[in-house]
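Are you able to produce any protein sequence you like plus the matching backbone structure tokens because I've never seen that pairing?
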Amino acid sequence: MPEYKQHVLVCDVVRDDEKHCGDKGGGDVKKKFAEVLAANDLRNDVYLSSVGCTSQHGLCQMDQASVIIYGVNNQGTWYVADVDDVETLVNEHIKNGIIVSSLLNEKMKVKI
């Protein structure tokens, strides 16, 4: 099994109430991550997967999804993002290690 440097988890859960990330932009956000990671030759370094409901769908607008990126030192960063945010997350967070504060899910920040 390959050893990945980072892991991107996108919520794409669909429910009958049509309020979850998969009912909103989750599927499109995950698809865009796959495209952008491939275009940047990062598919062998970054594992992309779905994640079960994180109960953050209430923060997401109709075109957004909850996104978690795990990277250096297994640090996880929670975001709320749409397809237009994916390139920024790949370029800033994944490639350069810079947290994109404008997209942070503030409710899931760990308080030290």
